[in-house]
Amino acid sequence: MTDMKALTDQIRSTAREWLEKGEVKYIIGYEKDPNSPIARPVFIHEPKDVDRLIIDLTCVNNLTRFLVDEMKNKPKRGEEPDLRPIGIVVKPCDSKTIVELVKEKIVPRDRVKIIGVVSPSTIDPKKLNMALKNIPQNKRKDVKLKENGNDFILEYDGESSSIPQDDLLADKCKVCVVHTPVISDITIGEGEKDWKKDNFEDIKDIEDMSPDERWEFWKRQLDRCVRCYACREACPLCYCEECVFDREKPYRWNERTVGLKENAFYHLVRAMHLAGRCVDCGECERVCPMDIPIRKINRYLIKRARERFNVFPGINVEEDPMFGSYDVDDPGEDIW
Amino acid sequence: MADWEPKIIGFLCNWCSYTGADLAGTSRLQYPSNIRIIKVMCSGRVNPQFVLKAFQEGADGVLVSGCHPGDCHYIEGNYYARRKLTLLKDLLEFMGVDPERFQVSWVSASEGHKFAEVVTKFTEQIKTLGPQTKLDGGDGE
After folding, report:
1. Where residue B60 sits, what CATH number does that domain have?
2. Residue B139 domain-assigned?
3. Does a structural domain hold residue B14?
4. Is the peptide bond preceding residue A250 cis, with omega within 30 degrees of 0?
5. B83 shares contact with chain A (CB less than 8 Å)
6. Dihedral, B36, A275, A303, B50 alpha carbons, nearest 10
7. Which of B39, B64, B37, B35 is nearest to B52 (CA)?
8. Chain A closest CA to B37's CA: distance in Å?
9. Single pTM value for the model
10. What is the distance between the alpha carbons of residues A171 and A336, in angstroms, rounded to a whole number?
């Protein structure tokens, strides 16, 4: 159990200090959403606003996506670009994204000032909404969420109910192996420094299926996809200036139609584009309106990349990207 | 289905495998005509997207062939290819698409015989698997 109040206070004081000294252009963090029980992203430009910043169990977003967008912003003509670093509040999982972004030279290390928070875990907004289904949508914002041992306490309208942590925690947090930020300028809170071993138990059920069962499973999942591209938009590592799925010239790679063959192509190509880079921040699955288990595909590739090439994305800034490097002794036992 | 013949797309590198295929031809070696060859400058040029697109368009099998490791005309292109393509094969397996439909091979410019063997063996393999009906949306086109 972590004292969220103390963490929030520390974030605020750090943010105030950085903004007052003018060390950062602005700070990206979380604030209480007046319309929802889930926290929302906020951009703090003035020291007087820092008290809006919070950290709690409902800070689900990976804010590094905004960092990527900021780096893409071109200064207006005749305007001196403001090259001060951007302050950002990151959870341990999000800090791995920053490592990848620095490694791929999308975000220069000196353009970002990181407040790393040792936060225990976050909840899954979809699961919370299910748990609150008896409360009208416009009243859910008043629900208070507290941690109590292995349970969460939901307080609403003077009544409180208890729900096991497992029923509310985000899936990615259940298999999380890194509990302290990998990269940060200031680390707030105390946590286990050691990494646990990821045994990829959550994808075992799919691996145990027969090939035809696996295809039936994925067919059911991919058939649902409406190709809203929310997974691409939320992904901090999908930063291409022009995505291959938006390209019309010289060749349209994928038809716009929503159908199994287009959807399968989209998801397979996206998985390959993220292979060796994806740090399993879980944003794709969180934003998916059709509940497609996208993370499972990415996690399988993380697992295989680890087994085959000993690649661990999101840890070391100095390492070469997986597909941008090779080892003469890489396995290739299936090759004729 | 009796007269069904598999459609196989082959991405061959310009320097080794394409020349190897040429040698197989000039040596008058017999191999199945199911393979449609696309010449690429290097096996490292083969984007996993190309392979998936071939499957989407209804290919029954895809063969990627390049120089032996260490022999690449561009020194290291086939090492990059090996990383990408082995991982792609894993991904196909995880999605439930037969990984046997996708094959990588190393064929040098002097290995006309090996090229004919690889194509014969691969075509036989695809024939036993039957038509690919998964990634093309199952519309049988």
Report:
1. 3.40.50
2. no
3. yes
4. yes
5. yes
6. -10
7. B64
8. 18
9. 0.92
10. 40
Point out the least confidently predicted range of A144-148, A332-336, B26-30.
A144-148
For B117, nearest residue in chain A (alpha carbons): A336
Six-digit token string for A300: 């399988």
Cβ neighbours for A136, distance < 8 A, ≥ 6 positions apart? none
Contact A323 B83 (CB under 8 A): yes
Beta strands in chain A (DSSP E): 27-31, 40-44, 53-54, 86-90, 112-117, 144-148, 151-156, 159-164, 186-188
Indicate the number of domains in chain B. Answer: 1
Q: Cβ of A191: how many Cβ atoms within 10 Å?
A: 17
Query: How would you write chain B as a 3-class SS string?
Result: CCCCCCCEEEEEECCCHHHHHHHHHHCCCCCCCCEEEEEECCHHHCCHHHHHHHHHCCCCEEEEEECCCCCCCCCCHHHHHHHHHHHHHHHHHHCCCCHHHEEEEECCCCCHHHHHHHHHHHHHHHHHHCCCCCCCCCCCC
Identify residues of A whose CB sits under 8 angstroms from chain B CBs. Answer: 206-207, 209, 211-219, 244, 253, 259-262, 264-265, 268-269, 271-272, 275-276, 297, 300-301, 304-305, 308-309, 322-323, 326-328, 330-332, 334-336
Q: Is B135 on the interface with A (CB under 8 A)?
A: yes
A195-245: pLDDT as tens digits:
777 888 888 888 899 999 999 999 999 999 999 999 999 999 999 988 999
Of B69, B121, B135, the CB nearest to A261: B135
Helix axes B112-129, B17-26, angle to 10 degrees: 100
In this structure, are residues A27 and A43 in contact, taking their beta carbons and an 8 Å threshold? yes
Per-residue pLDDT reduced to its tens digit, B71-95: 899 999 999 999 999 999 999 999 9
Look up residue B57 and give its two tokens: 């368009």
Structural domain for B109, as ranges? 8-129
* Angle at A243 (CA atoms; ends A240, A244), nearest 5 degrees: 130
The C-alpha atoms of residue A126 and residue B106 are separated, in whole angstroms, by 48
Q: How many residues does chain B have?
A: 141
